[in-house]
Automatic annotation (TrEMBL), chains A, B:
Repressor listed as a keyword: yes
Record-annotated HTH tetR-type domain positions: 8-68
Keywords for this protein: DNA-binding, Repressor, Transcription, Transcription regulation
Pfam families in the record: TetR_C_1, TetR_N
Gene Ontology biological process terms, A to Z: negative regulation of DNA-templated transcription; response to antibiotic
PANTHER family registered for this protein in UniProt: HTH-TYPE TRANSCRIPTIONAL REGULATOR RUTR, TRANSCRIPTIONAL REGULATORY PROTEIN
Protein name in the entry: AcrR family transcriptional regulator
DNA-binding region per UniProt: 31-50
PROSITE patterns assigned: HTH_TETR_2
Source organism per UniProt: Micromonospora jinlongensis
Single Gene Ontology MF annotation: DNA-binding transcription factor activity
Keyword Transcription regulation: yes
Coiled-coil boundaries: none
DNA sequence: GTCTATAAGTGGATAGAC
DNA sequence: GTCTATCCACTTATAGAC
């Protein structure tokens, strides 16, 4: 026999609505009252499901991180797995850029972030990278992805040619960046990621590969 | 209480105190009242020097960015200049990590950020990089630096061995990251930056260098 | 240029009714 | 499990006295 009336709130519904609210209005605009209003309830009702506001934010951050795909580390060579992971990571964060400053405070105790770190670190070590190097690589990629999701580079420029021409001689075309925001940001990410992986592959060949030559990376 | 002979507030003093306050207590704790208290005045007095709270934050962000050294682009080859710039940029941001989320929203109209973009872009173009590529390189480095300053990777882990051992097999040593936070974060940055520059140098040799062989980069 | 006073509102969170 | 009622510290910003 189902319950006559379903509870209006569930943890999942709260997290989904909180995510949408943060996406739409930003982290500073996110309050328990505002969230409750969005859910059609009053503020205090949320406290039946979460103890504090930060617990809600942690759940949102964990859900965002949970969308990242690390499966490549199980089946592909380390470089291809890093590439797949970085793009998936970037997609997950750029889908919810406003939560990034909160999320980037550190993997902390959030399960999804720890599972991701575990998969990446494990995959790199399995491929032969020394543990300390694997840590550095995972962190470096995290820096790059978080930074790219944090704030669009192109978005920072305004669409007013006059503003830049006067004082910044090389930025004469900068106003055009605003038009091509997405392709500039993605192009910069692609360039940086490719260069990074190129450099890592060179170091791998120089150190790990020289020792375990002939051993497949997967 | 008699009024002081000298004005107690100046824009510079306000910005310096605001920076210290944000460093010490974080962006959410920063309020005009809290700042005024720190300066020994009442909240409204600040509005004689800045029109809004955001104007103060912009001034703080601009001061932080203003500490970045881009002089290498005038005198050194592009790769060495990028390396110097990236480290200087990182030092400036990690000295004030709590302002990074605000600062990273985009270069916007802040003079110091625009001057920095101008110097970097101009230096790269002068070295022979195609304009579109120069934009991507500057943005990619910005992503990496901002991400590295935004949140320490190592800090995210707690110093409790038991917490990770159970569920994340590869993170058995992760609690040790907390001890070596600074060296892990700097090592990850150094590795990523070197790999990135290695990859860029390869592309430069493949494209620009092939066309303008023999031309000095400076 | 700093002050008092105040506007007009939001914040997270709790107690206890139903 | 949601409600009403409530707490009160706190927010940015303005008006006008001195």
């Amino acid at each position: 026999m189902p319950r006559p009336r379903q509870p209006r709130l569930t943890r999942q519904l709260i997290v989904e609505t909180a995510t949408a609210l943060i996406d739409a209005e930003g982290l500073p605009a996110f309050s328990t009252r505002r969230l409750a209003a969005e859910l059609g309830v009053r503020g205090p009702s949320l406290y039946n499901h979460f103890a504090t506001k930060d617990e809600i934010l942690d759940a949102v951050a964990d859900a965002v991180t949970g969308a990242v795909d690390t499966s490549g580390f199980a089946s592909r060579d380390w470089a291809a797995a890093l590439l797949d992971w970085a793009w998936s990571y970037r997609r997950a964060l750029t889908a919810h850029p406003n939560i990034v400053p909160y999320l980037a405070q550190g993997p902390g105790r959030r399960p999804a972030a720890l599972a991701m770190a575990d998969a990446v670190y494990g995959g790199l070590v399995r491929a032969g990278w020394p543990p300390a190097r694997a840590t550095h690589i995972g962190a470096a990629l995290r820096y790059f992805v978080a930074g790219s999701a944090l704030g669009s580079f192109a978005r920072g420029f305004v669409e007013d040619p006059e503003l830049y021409a006067a004082h910044y001689p090389h930025l004469r075309q900068a106003h055009r960046l605003a038009e091509h925001q997405q392709s500039v940001d993605e192009g910069a990410f692609a360039l940086g990621l490719d260069a990074l992986l190129y450099g890592l592959a060179a170091e791998y060949a120089r150190t790990v590969g020289a020792v375990e030559s002939g051993r497949p990376n997967g």
